[in-house]
């Protein structure tokens, strides 16, 4: 298939919760694509932490009740953050053209959803978005240990590679950046992973980079009280 | 890029554990591709249940110590079952060419690794490959409940679609088939999901279909004792 944009001129609407790393992935790529392709998109804020993904209006659009969701003008929707990234990046520099490099990028994106997000993002969620007496807090030690194991896999890769998406920055970096950058919110320190810290700095320096929204005051207070 | 095979004539070696659904996905696709393209591959059995993924020889090939792993003759390796499927299927009828359909297939494959495998496959693993007095068995009720929620999402899709990969059978079906077909090993009954049962029958009827290896006698006895 051609390397032309697959998205044509249709307006894209993203339903997302700004402090969610899975949602921020989509915003970061769209912002970075926008710098190159003058693309436009709408962002509809859906606060999944207070049940807005469970409203009747939202469930009519997306019966799975999850964010992020990408919607086209004709009503078609796409869910799963990394599938959205892959679709948006097709034909751009953020997805390598070489089949083997593409496969490696996709491999890191599956690693992110299987071995990284369920530990690092979930530890952060428990710290910032559950009460201090939540029974879920008993999960934190195991989640942090598994999160550190995932970071060790990333550290090993970064000792001999600059990026996760192939020879250049791309969607596997965006997928892994989201929750790695805020691992500290879940009580996972990054200082034992110097190559990861260097890579985070390289990602932040890419053209068009936008940071994720900070947690609101209530979530930040819970995070501070969790450490 | 062209729809020609990306794999050229290089011999592929798959390191896998035959009763693992993640590994069987790769075998099933290769068997089905072989019927069309006269492809050859080697299968190296690695019993992850007795620690063979942790041997020095295996860790030298794959420091992450996981199966399945695909290796090329020149030593390059690819991990993550669904990334392997995507790479192998490129240029074949098992991966739709239409970008939106491809994105939907990928979306289901991320769903499989995030919302399906960690419940349905893990419940099966605990039942068949941990002792009857394992403390992990306390996880089973919650895993089964989440597994049924994932099956309900599949059931809803199948009420209006024949396949998960677009208009035809393909890699999202292969990814979801693997552990759905053996959900009963983990104590998750499929009778409440008639569209899922019909789809499983359609998958089994596809050309070149091969079933997954049955658990060995010891695992089967543990499964039987778990129900």
UniProtKB/TrEMBL annotation, chains A, B:
Pfam families xref list: GST_C_2, GST_N_2
Classification via InterPro entries: Glutathione-S-Trfase_C-like, Glutathione-S-Trfase_C_sf, Glutathione_S-Trfase, Glutathione_S-Trfase_N, Thioredoxin-like_sf
Segments forming domain GST C-terminal: 98-223
Residue ranges constituting the GST N-terminal domain according to the UniProt record: 10-96
UniProt keywords, alphabetically: Transferase
SUPFAM superfamilies per UniProt: GST C-terminal domain-like, Thioredoxin-like
GO molecular function terms listed in the Swiss-Prot or TrEMBL record: transferase activity
Source organism, top-level taxon: Bacteria
Protein name: Glutathione S-transferase
